Amino acid sequence: MEAILLVGGRGTRLRPLTISTPKPLLPTAGVAFLAHQLARAHAAGVERIVFATSYRAEMFEAAFGAHAHGVDLAYVDERQPLGTGGAIRNAARALTCGPDDPVLILNGDILSGHDVPAQVKLHEQAGAAVTLHLTEVEDPSRFGCVPTDDGGRVTAFLEKTSHPVTNQINAGCYVFRRSAIDTIAEDEVVSVERETFPALIASGAVVMGHVEPAYWLDVGTPEAFVRGSCDLVLGRLASSAMPGDPGERLTLAGASVSPGAVVRGGTTVGRGAVVEAGATVLGSVLLDDAFVAEGATVRGSVLSRGARVGPGAVLDEVILGDGAVVGPGNELCGGLRVWPGIELPPTAVRFSTDA
Ligand code: GTP
After folding, report:
1. Are residues 102 and 208 in the same domain?
2. Strand partners, 76
3. Residue having the nearest C-alpha atom to atom 5 of ligand 1
4. Which has fewest Cβ within 10 Å: 91, 131, 226, 302?
5. For the whole prediction, is pTM greater than 0.90?
């Protein structure tokens, strides 16, 4: 089976992490996020993937080349970002399958443990134009929701509302009949969620919902990105791409963690990163050459390449850009983002909520 992987978004919600690296290439549990998706796609029977690229397009081929994780790879760039639907139509130029064959479409920012072969089987049995993976969430009001009838057929594609009619939401993984992709306008900006799916339903095409409450996470926000990385390290979602066994922490080659430090909760410690004695790092992502000094506390945070946390500083759900420095004694929390290269002098900020 062939697949299209949508990886052209700018990832604005993850800035400053996405200034230098597109979201799908951010190191996640020790490897580029996409490595986990490629490995899972291969396990599901995908043999060839076309990357639909736009933002920092050249970085994808440089990272993965012509073959990775058991899958052959091709790259189709958009001169202008075409949105999710326009990108699918544009990338379909590089598909080699026949008009009735199923094509898997994956958002490049979703971690999912659902049963892709079961989704494809439903698609083929129903003779559907498109079959969407739908997941169930506790609070669907933050998402558009997707009701289905008793036979599993999608009846509507509804925008966000404070009174959702179902807790089923679009999980960002679709099976398209190859010929259904050709109904999307060529060389135009199109959203599959807002235009293609509602139009297919209105035209009477068979659109099916594969509802499966497996592990599922959209890593588009800093909090979710950290959670996704930690869940992979902890083994909550198995990934053959992870460079190590599941456990409380993943320590990459060349990292140095003092025996007197506490590092757990699914934390990754990148190559050349250092955690000194007396430091505590919980549920966080430390990229290459990050540094946590003695007595510092880091929770639910990302330290980008070369970022440094001084002695006794406290970081709670904070993003440090490349090379950012937090001087000794600072206390930062609540989603604060420190831009690359910025240096906070000692005890400049005290945003901590405790004490
Ligand atoms: P935000 O800016 O933070 O919303 O992130 P994003 O740009 O990634 O947008 P979003 O999360 O809605 O995108 C869902 C998926 O579609 C991601 O994998 C994106 O890389 C991809 N995507 C979004 N827009 C485009 C586009 O115009 N072209 C291509 N090729 N992919 C896109």
Report:
1. yes
2. 52
3. 11
4. 226
5. yes
Does the CB atom of residue 218 touch ligand 1 within 6 A? no
* pLDDT tens-digit map of 19-30: 999 999 999 999
The mean per-residue pLDDT over the stretch 235-246 comes to 96
Residues 297 and 253 in one domain: yes
| Pair of tokens at residue 230 | 């930690």
| Structural domain of 260 | 248-352
Q: Is 7 in the pocket of ligand 1 (CB under 6 A)?
A: yes
Asked whether 50 lines ligand 1 (CB < 6 A), one says: no
Q: Annotated active-site positions, please?
A: 160
Is residue 352's pLDDT more than 70?
Answer: no
Question: Are 39 and 107 members of one domain?
Answer: yes
The verdict on 179 and 59 lying in the same domain is yes
Q: How many structural domains compose the chain?
A: 2
- Give the number of C-alpha atoms closer than 13 A to the C-alpha of residue 270, restricted to the C-beta side: 21
Number of alpha helices (DSSP H) and beta strands (DSSP E) in the chain: 8, 29
Q: How far is the CA of 79 from the centre of ligand 1 (A)?
A: 15
**Is the C-beta atom of 84 inside 6 A of ligand 1?**
yes
Distance 71 CA to ligand 1 centre (A): 22
